[in-house]
Amino acid sequence: MSSALPAQAPAPTVPTVLVTGAARRLGREIALALAGAGWRVAVHYRDSEEDAIKTVAACAILTGGAAVFHADLGDETAVRALLPRVIESMGHVDAVVNSASTFEHDSCASFSFGAMEKHLRSNTGAAILLAQALHSHIAARQPESPTARGVVVNLLDQKLWNQNPDFFSYTLSKAALEAANTMLAMALSPLLRVVGVAPGLTLTSHLLSDAQFEALHKLSPLGRSSTAQDVASTVLFALQNQSITGTTLLVDGGQHLMRFERDFSLM
Questions:
Q1: Is residue 7 part of a domain?
Q2: Residues near 187 by Cβ (< 8 Å), separated by ≥ 6?
Q3: Which domain CATH number covers 50?
Q4: Residue 5: inside a domain
Q5: Residue 30: in which H helix or E strand, if any?
Q6: Could you tell me if 63 and 40 are in contact, meaning their C-beta atoms sit under 8 angstroms apart?
Q7: Cis bond upstream, residue 146 (ω within 30)
Q8: What number is the average pLDDT over the span 105-112?
Q9: Which of 66, 102, 166, 190 could disulfide-link to 122, CB 3.0 to 4.6 Å?
Q10: 66 in the Ramachandran plot: left (φ > 0), alpha (ψ -120 to 50) or beta?
């Protein structure tokens, strides 16, 4: 009778995700939620280095693996170099969450090519390039990991389903990204899934007082819009559900069903 112990199955690979704009606000909440669910998190930032380091420290406590990466998402060269840097540092990447966003006010009257290009480069082009890079990375892993698959989650905005003319270039860039969801899901399958998550009014800003934010947050059929936790849990759901691609999950308490003539920040 053999006394040999049964062979142990190899330890599962810890999934790794790059979250852009993860130093502060909604990106940070998403990074923390994913770390809490067992993901190693690559924390991207542009300007907020100190906050990014704090996010990495908080993620590392939760999951034991996190690192910080700087890049200007308006710079194509920097964007193309970002995922290879994460892979070199962390070994592999399974998902990208495009949370970073340029959000600057313009209108039809003040619209310019410059404003449009600035938003399209960082909000649309960067997300597409990162999806492209993740697809190449997953394909390169196929010989050793035939079952490897990846997923991209793009943060959108409920205002695409409830449009107003404020923040004209920002809205155009998010509309282009929503269209890219469909095209990328088709072009990059079966190795990559691509899912949109569209929050409603979630966090306040310098443009709103606390009282204004509270009042606006209640303007929805459910009596409340999205919280950061709602959005983060939806991102996690999109990462984990293997049957979702090429569509967008609206997380807004139904705000897209109501008519708003202005952007929340200008109401």
A1: no
A2: none
A3: 3.40.50.720
A4: no
A5: helix 25-36
A6: yes
A7: no
A8: 96
A9: 102
A10: beta
Per-residue DSSP letter, 218: T
Domain with 93, as residue range(s), is 16-137+148-198+231-253
Helix (H) or strand (E) holding 152, with range, is strand 150-155
- Residues contacting residue 57 through CB under 8 Å, at least 6 positions apart: 66
For helices 228-240 and 25-36, the axis angle rounded to 10 degrees is 50
| Assigned domain for 224 exists | no
The rounded Cα 91 to chain-centroid distance in angstroms is: 21
Work out the number of other CB atoms within 10 angstroms of the CB of residue 196.
25
Write out the two tokens for 62: 């939760």
How many structural domains compose the chain? Answer: 1
| pLDDT tens string 157-197 | 999 999 999 999 999 999 999 999 999 999 999 999 999 99
Cα-Cα end-to-end distance for the chain: 79
Locate all alpha helices (DSSP H) within 142-221, ordered by sequence.
Answer: 168-187, 210-217
Dump pLDDT digits (tens) for 11-42. Answer: 357 899 999 999 999 999 999 999 999 999 99
Note whether residue 245 is domain-resident: yes
CA 55/CA 98 separation, integer angstroms: 16
What is the secondary structure of 115-151 as a DSSP string?
Answer: HHHHHIIIIIIHHHHHHHHHHHHHHHHTTT-TT--EE
Residue (of 221, 217, 254, 248) closest to 235 by Cα position = 248
Q: What length is written for the chain?
A: 267
- Element containing residue 27 per DSSP (H, E): helix 25-36
Q: How far apart are CA 110 and CA 134, in angstroms?
A: 36
Q: Are 134 and 231 in contact (CB under 8 A)?
A: no
Burial of 117 (0-12, 13-18, 19+ CB in 10 A): middle
Residue 28 C-alpha from the chain's centroid:
11
DSSP type of residue 19: E
